Amino acid sequence: MPTSRQGLIDYCLRELGHPVVEINVDDDQVSDRIDEAFQFYRDYHYDAVERVYLKHQVTSSNQTNAYIDLDDSVIGVVRVLPFSAINTGQAYMWDIRYQLRLNDMFDLLNTSIIYYEQVKQQLALIDQLLVGSKSFRFQRHQNRLHIDMGWSTDITEGEYIIIEAYKILDPNTWTDVYGDRFLKRYATALIKRQWGNNLKKFEGIQMPGGVTLNGQKIYDEAMEEIRHLEEEMQSTYVEPPNFMVG
User: What is the pLDDT of residue 34?
Assistant: First the structure.
């Protein structure tokens, strides 16, 4: 099983017949097709990303710019946790939800779970109506998280913001990614397409020994394999729609 980028390249070339068959593809072309395979894999396969919670300490630069810079590996932001839920300090002990749980803890026999749930829902409704949640905007290619709030009044420098997001798995850290079954097949098909596309330029030329190159056949086979794999991705490996924002 491949555990590195070069290992994945070697696997794909062997799958196509190397070294028994000469694969007429330049090293740079192979590298480009591997990048293309990873791009498709990360955009759609549920095993290519992980759900994470990112901690960010607000700086004066964030308050001036009104946005937070995120890492390139973040491909989607789901939500920004309410600030009241992540701030700490003595004042939080007097939060009504804290007091509700504290009082009920010592009177479990006389506490109705139905009433308890109704109170929780009522508090959540009041919080939503009077406070609400902070709306946000995230654009993947900008790597910026814009939170629509008063940066000078709603939050202070040094406070923390918790961001729930989806982040690409780094294959150099989690080397099992290189051995993913779908990724290996898709990368092989892309390299095969490149091989056929290269050979099409010499269609009809007869080689020594009477062998005639048939790049079109290799290209057509590769295109059919790619079409089948992309359909398989959509039907088998894609998360349900709207699983992340951004």
Answer: 98
Distance of CA 29 to the CA centre of its chain: 25
131 and 220 fall within a common domain: no
| Cis before 82? omega within 30 | no
Same domain, 88 and 190: no
Q: Which two tokens stand for residue 187?
A: 């990368």
Give the tokens for residue 10.
């070697």
Residue pLDDT, tens place only, 127-151:
777 766 778 999 889 999 999 988 9
Residue 63 is encoded by which pair of tokens?
A: 């308050």
Are residues 40 and 138 located together in one domain of the fold? no
Q: Are 76 and 244 in contact (CB under 8 A)?
A: yes
Q: Using one digit for the tens of pLDDT, what is the confidence trace for 111-130?
A: 667 777 887 788 778 877 77
In angstroms, the CA 94 to CA 177 distance is: 47
